[in-house]
Design brief:
about 180 residues; alpha/beta; Rossmann fold; three-stranded antiparallel beta sheet; 3 helices; binds inosinic acid; binds magnesium ion
Length: about 180
């Protein structure tokens, strides 16, 4: 890293691990059928990896797919539209799907993804996000499982980036 911004920890590794375990338990209890977990790249990769391992510990056997959606270019300004950069390969018809993403902000990304999977015939589409930013929704979409409510700040780490930096951090922080 070249810039000198201060990084403040918002949610540390232990706090994240506890929430991931709790979400996995909630998903298990939902008794989903023929479950396909669809992780939204890139930001969800760390959360998805942890959540999937927690689901395994609870005896679940989901399949896993990845969709790469983009509503942000480099930097922090939403483009207001969503593009499919990489689609899933599985047929979702009649299946239960759990969409996993890093953060629910305007809701455009997840509303788009959910509508797409419903249109393809998914039986049920649930949403899990690590963070939810309140008061930011531009479209109506709710997350079924949320790790934490995020402060109204640009956050990084645990998969989340600013201009491709900080994704590797095992905790969630914000920059001054
Ligand atoms: P939405 O479509 O506005 O809900 O935006 C969701 C996507 O924007 C997330 O999946 C992130 O990739 C990105 N995003 C929104 N807020 C932040 C942030 O504070 N830090 C990093 N990425 C963010
Ligand atoms: Mg994203």
């Amino acid at each position: 890293m070249t810039d000198k911004k201060q990084l403040h920890v918002l949610f540390d590794e232990a706090a994240i691990a506890a929430r991931v375990e709790a979400i996995a338990e909630q998903v298990r209890a939902a008794d989903l059928k023929n479950l396909l977990v669809v992780a939204v790249l890139k930001g969800s990769f760390m959360f998805a990896a942890d959540l999937l391992r927690a689901m395994h510990r609870k005896g679940m056997q989901p399949q896993v797919e990845f969709v790469h959606l983009s509503s942000y270019l480099e930097g922090t300004v939403s483009q207001g539209h969503v593009k499919i950069l990489k689609d899933i390969e599985s047929n979702v018809s009649g299946r239960d799907v759990l969409l996993v993403d890093d953060i629910l902000e305007s809701g455009r990304t997840l509303a788009f993804a959910k509508d797409l999977l419903v249109a393809r015939g998914a039986r049920k589409v649930l949403i899990s996000v690590m963070l939810e930013k309140p008061h930011k929704r531009a479209v109506q979409v709710d997350a079924d499982y949320v790790g934490f409510k995020s402060p109204d700040k640009f956050v990084v780490g645990y998969g989340m980036d600013v201009a491709h930096n900080y994704r590797q951090l095992p905790f969630i922080g914000c920059l001054d």
